[in-house]
Amino acid sequence: MPVKEVLGKYTKEQIKKAAGIKALFFDVDGVLTDGKIIYDDAGRELKQFNVKDGYIISHLKKAGLVVGIITGRESAVVSRRATELKLDFCHQGIVDKYSVFEKLIDFHKLKKKEVAYVGDDINDLKILTHCGLAACPADALEYVRTRVDVVSALKGGRGVVREVADLILAARGELDELIEFN
Q: What is the pTM of this model?
């Protein structure tokens, strides 16, 4: 019973919020990655992604969730990862993430309470305080951790999005079926 294993570490309120989620949006640096930015001698940017985060995306999409990135930096590496994962959107170089969040909600005909967001820094706070399920990595800044519904047990780049996705799928009653048919 994977659902019981997953849901056993969450409160009834967290599970209730997760059950109503129809979209998962997230930041990149510090969430999908450990926050490090590496440049090689040729000036190429390198980032390391966790395959567990990527793997669950196709299952979220099959479950009907809208999934995508809102990030403050621009990076060819992130574009490549977003394309590989077949995300619904990848908005980069965003100064005002909240205005993009609102536009995406309107475009996808969602309510704020139907969107989960995973972020880790100041520029994520407004979304985190207005979305349906707010989450952050274990190593997010303290003032972020105190303003979210779920603080992951994992640090950024270590499967945070996967942990939140599993919570959502379990709360919606879709995780056990997913596991049994694979």
A: 0.95
